[in-house]
Amino acid sequence: MIQAGVVGFKCFLIDSGLDEFPHVTEEDLHPVFETLVGTGSVLLFHAEMDACGCTRSVQSDVTQYETFLQSRPKEWENDAIKLVCKLCLLYKVRCHIVHLSSSEVVPLIQHAQEEGAPLTVETCNHYLTLVSEKVPDGATEYKCCPPIREQVNQDLLWEAIRSDAIEMVVSDHSPCLPEMKNLDTGDFMTAWGGISSLQFGERDVAVLFLEPVTFTPSCLYIGERRLSAILVPASRVKRSGRYVPATSICRSLAVLVGSERARLRRADAR
Question: Looking at residue 136, what DSSP letter applies?
Answer without folding.
Answer: P
